[in-house]
């Protein structure tokens, strides 16, 4: 039985007591740019320094990738390779849909269409279900299985589901400064 993403948020009431302020199942977001994938946007913090204790804290989910000091947490269910729909041939429609639903998602992707991209983030990528392949720019690959955590430090990479089952990943992204290498 597949995992159903759920978000629980804690905070404080007016007396300062810890309380549950949110408990919900996020709606999946899909875009033609990644056929068959479902994004579950959970939470994000504004760019800059993280703060706790604010009354009525709200998630920052846009743009898709956080800026310096910001964060994003999401689940992404990748379609099984065998069931990936064929991409829609109209690039303008794809770009417009991404700009509306997940602004900034495709900005770091290269034009070749092979999924390679580089972001200025520290990413914790945790495989929860299925298998997902992580490919680096030199052709090196590793297959992630449930329980695997990848710490992605701004390297050029691509994610690919080559299996016949969907894969569910949890990503936590933190905006970072790129240091010249």
TrEMBL record:
CDD domains, sorted: cupin_BLL6423-like
Entries under InterPro entries matching the protein: OryJ/VirC-like, RmlC-like_jellyroll, RmlC_Cupin_sf
Protein name: Cupin 2 conserved barrel domain-containing protein
Source organism of the structure: Paractinoplanes brasiliensis
């Amino acid at each position: 039985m597949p995992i159903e993403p759920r978000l629980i948020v804690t905070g404080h009431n007016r007396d300062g007591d810890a309380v549950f302020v949110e408990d919900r199942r996020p709606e999946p977001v899909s875009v033609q740019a990644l056929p068959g994938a479902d994004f579950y946007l959970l939470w994000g913090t504004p760019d800059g320094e993280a703060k706790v204790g604010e009354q009525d804290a709200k998630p920052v989910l846009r743009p898709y990738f956080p800026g310096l000091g910001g964060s994003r947490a999401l689940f992404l269910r990748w379609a099984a390779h065998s069931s990936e729909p064929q991409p829609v041939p109209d690039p303008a429609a794809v770009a417009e849909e991404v700009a509306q639903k997940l602004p900034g998602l495709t900005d770091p992707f290269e034009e070749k269409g092979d999924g390679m991209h580089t972001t200025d983030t520290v990413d914790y990528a945790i495989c929860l279900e299925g298998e997902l392949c992580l490919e680096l720019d030199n052709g090196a690959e590793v297959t992630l299985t449930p329980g695997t955590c990848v710490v992605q430090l701004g390297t050029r990479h691509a994610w690919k589901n080559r299996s016949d089952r969907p894969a569910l990943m949890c990503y936590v992204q933190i905006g970072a400064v790129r240091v010249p290498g």
